[in-house]
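Hi R.,

Here's the chain you asked about this morning:
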Amino acid sequence: MLNQNKTDTDNLILKTRSISKEFPGVLALDKVDLRIFCGQVNAVVGENGAGKSTLMKILCGVYTDYTGKIILDGKEVMFRNPRDAQIEGISIIHQELNLIPNLTVAENIFLGGEETDRFGFLDRSKMRSVTLELLEKLELDINPTVRVSDLRVGQQQLIEIARALHVEARILIMDEPTSAISEKEIDILFSIIESLRERNVAVIYITHKLDELFRIASNVSVLRDGKLINTSPIDEVDKETIIHSMVGREVDDFFVKSTLNPGNEVLRVENLSLLRSAGSKDFIVKNVSFVVRQREILGIYGLMGAGRTELFETLFGMHPTISSGEIIINGNSVSINSPEQAIDAGIGFVTENRKDEGLVIQMSVAENVSLAGIKQVESFGFLSKKMEDKLADNYKDRVGIKTPTVGQIVDKLSGGNQQKVVLAKWLITDPLILLLDEPTRGVDVNAKNEIYQLISQLASDGLAVIIISSELPEILAISDRIIVLTEGKKTAEFFRKEFTEEKIIKAALPDQYHLYLNQ
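And here is the predicted structure, written out as tokens:
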């Protein structure tokens, strides 16, 4: 058990006094008093937009224009930048990946603190050696010289964790560290957190997966609308109490899937395959076939490396030279060799990494919403801001984007609202088929509920929806039918009345684990 409850003031390392932070039109934090203890996992939870990430960015020197005080080791501190915070032993694993894609794994881990030899040259050998040790702790079989851009999102998340471990912080902030990693990797991470706790490191742990709290947390602090609602020892609360504190209403208000009658077949996929590279005989996706109909939500479940995202990328025309198979839309076989052709065929694709692949975060809501439908906001060959704003206003209301204006910069929105902007961007293309890859990744319990309701409504309106999720409760809650992928192959298909966690997990395990289970 990791959740050790200690609250005596001798272990107090950091506290905030009346921390407040404003963005244009938004009071993100309102007089927050938070206390952090050594040797504990100090959990912080709340809806997207509650102020969690903003508070953490203040604690690690990213935001400096705030009011209130930070007290570290009994003394007031003011960080001018993240380097100041690192010098004082505060490090953060960001929710949104903060790696340099074109640098190697080792270069990212040592960024800003490179090792040099006695002549002042980079000691690449030492950096590779230390990186290997860190990766071994995380049981991550990756070459330190591989570029980060070549890794999947889940692997990149583990590199973020490895980089934070390398710093050997006194206070380690983990912002949604399990949002993109597998159950096995979560277990490894939790054992590392236990070792950090035993070394008297203070861990600040932000998560939307409330089940995790009862495995690792010592105490839990709830933020709502920028205010600290309460802090409690973890053994004095339950999930329902936490949710009620987070959203201010009872748990039974949450998503319950309505039963829909599927319509005509919209998409049929026959023997879809994807090679690992040109000339390779190794398949990432191999001979996968399925159908999806109007008013149907098809769930795709699999463990990391199962080929789920690659399946979507292939459907969207991103790997035309190394893929094969037949795609049939509304009874007609179509050739999709580019994302543009996929959009023209009626496919929309909400990718798993919204900040890198779904949004231009320094552009406005209106500009992002129109990205996939530029022709709709053109007038005589020029972009019309008036048309763009009107279009965005319509979809802002339809999908429930919470923003003071469609001129707001997307980077200032919460994760849940950013995800709604991505959904709006694809809805303006009037798709027949909507591919959703981890649509609630890094999204709080209330925003998840809103996104579930939106997905269900889109299906009710006639869309064929296909959703990938690593969270088994989510895929069970939202899907009408589930197919399971294992090592690139379809291993099972279940209708809603057949859903059980045990069946789906067993189907997702590789062959060697099936053999183990049957012994």
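One quick note: The radius of gyration is 24 Å.

Cheers,
M.
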